[in-house]
Batch of 2 targets.
Target 1
Amino acid sequence: MAFIADALSRVKPSATIAVSQKARELKAQGRDIIGLGAGEPDFDTPDNVKDAAIAAIKRGETKYTPVSGIVPLREAIVQKFKRENNLDYKPEQTIVGTGGKQILFNAFMATMNPGDEVVIPTPYWVSYPEMVSICGGTPVFAETTIENGFKLTADVLERAITPKTKWLVMNSPSNPSGAAYTRDELRAIADVLLRHPHVWTLTDDMYEHLTYGDFVFTTLAEVEPALYDRTLTMNGVSKAYAMTGWRIGYAAGPLPLIKAMDMIQGQQTSGACSIAQWAAVEALNGPQDFVTKNKAIFQSRRDLVVSMLNQARHINCPVPEGAFYVYPSCAGAIGKTAPSGRTIANDEDFVSELLQAEGVAVVHGSAFGLGPNFRISYATSETALEEACNRIQRFTASLD
Ligand SMILES: Cc1ncc(COP(=O)(O)O)c(C=O)c1O
């Protein structure tokens, strides 16, 4: 009898962590490496948020909190959903977790029975299928294409839904593609969901505040109020307020689901860190100029990277609407020979040869379920991005 649970045999280690690890190893060997694998803003947490945390410590807010979160934070979440998404929730319909990750995990844990299916559009954030598998469910992948901007279409969704479907996961703007859904695109998805009342939707809106140009963010329950009773709207402070290490995520949804998630959390962590919760109150209620300022910085980095990648041979890089990722295709490089003499058979070979030849660390698209592509995180300085893109141009020019 194996000691480790069978469920873990279905789980893959994180490819994004593996790339960072490989880049670190090469750096330790003295190689000049530019890491474009990180999934976190390179900015520091704003001072008003740090000050709120320090004040919370000094006030003695250092004890267990209610499992689902402190009242001021749950109220701030209610106000945030009203102010920014025109969604009405009561504080008891909200829950705070240790990062957005725990919210997602608890939602799956609270709902999955063996055989239940979760529709996950590709390319997906690496953790969705693994979380579903750990919780005993079955991920069902719904493919998008570069031609439709990596967005799920109504017909693909319709084909993916079966009587066993429990959830659809929507992530807009997306990690890894940066694609964000317009109101019309969400309308088309909502119309399919209205025909399948047994399917709930988990909307991961983590990158809500990072959309560029005249793109207007919207979320599913806002577009179709009839889906409110079967939508869990998830969000967090990690990306918008550069608070990845504080580990605060949150969600709002139907009361029975929130209660079930509360029960799991009560047996698991007893709730998120008290100090980080007070910091999140300030992030949500305090001045929002930090978000606007960084959005402008991210947009100019996105434009730089997209333009330089589209000047690289064999690369096709669509312009994503949001997040801090681009997801170019390297289809043109498949079958070519790298400077090492090896043939590039797939996107994993492409990123590994790029790392060896030019010291640029990116993540292969097949790790996110759709290739041949690769993901670049532009959450780093323009200088580093420019140098990295120059190296990518040099690398692709050297392929024959
Ligand atoms: C799409 C998406 N959802 C959720 C998360 C998790 O966020 P947190 O750091 O708050 O757990 C991430 C983090 O990378 C993400 O990219």
Target 2
Amino acid sequence: MKVRPTARSLCQLLMTTLALVGFACLAVPVSAERSLPAKAGRVVAITFDDLPYVSDGPPVSPDAANAAQRQIVSALRRARVPATGFVNEDKVQALGPAGSRLLAEWNQGLLALGNHGYSHFDSNDLDVAGIEKEVMKGETTIRSLATSSDRSIPFFRFPYNHVGDTGTKRIAIEKLLASHGYRLAASTIDSSDYLFNSAYERAVTARDKAMMQRIERAYLDHSRAQIAYYGELSCKVLGRDVPAIMLLHANRLNAATIKPLLGLFRSAGYGFVSLAQAQADPAYSAMPAVATKFGPMWAYRWARERLVKVDGRQEQEPPAWVSAYAGETS
Ligand SMILES: [Zn+2]
């Protein structure tokens, strides 16, 4: 299921905000074209959404889900990288018994489960009572799994990162999550992996190995640029490095590229932490007080909240040929 590409729209609003000065990292232009040298002490939390498995290509089968999960989980375990997997209960049920079996893999060691709702709902379209139903029904499988191993489910992540399109709803969502014992899971780096995956699924269906490899390379190049861009953006807006949170999806493309993806972070000087460790930073102590119907990464929200001027047009778009091949209009 796709994540809506909505950051750009908020960026247009941000273009009109005021500039603040005095941050140590303001000397660094926020640009996707260049990247900072690696900085000591940077950390990132890896997160996967739409577990157990998401595909908008071939119908989801237990075999495809199992193969992707095996690649992702084994790569994370082997590299000793903590990760949180956010689950849609309807995707668990669609896989039958295989669904909860796959999730059990995420309920041990450095891996952890999170709630992503029963369905891939859009909170903009629901009232608070409807959102609460999604939150509660989303616990069906993950709650019993976690409880059976004496674990908790501390985080909820909203589909599309839609966390309140009005001030009133945003505050109601904040209260709702707290009343169910959740913290809102943030996201600071987005690589449009859903779009690359759509193209990848098409190449897989066509058995076009050359195209699959071309898409993998383009995806990794884009991810490298996005990691640099968002690292600089967060630093510019908050005046310091904050723990990053990478938004990925449990799909075929990430299964194929998880090892080099983790390598991109290492090359950029990042160490890996759990989501709980990342969100222990004071930057995440409260939801950004920003109402938007879009789903921008947190640095854009922090910028709007703090009246820091950023130029979102400098964020790199996925290559046009990838969008075209995926069937998007771009
Ligand atoms: Zn999602």
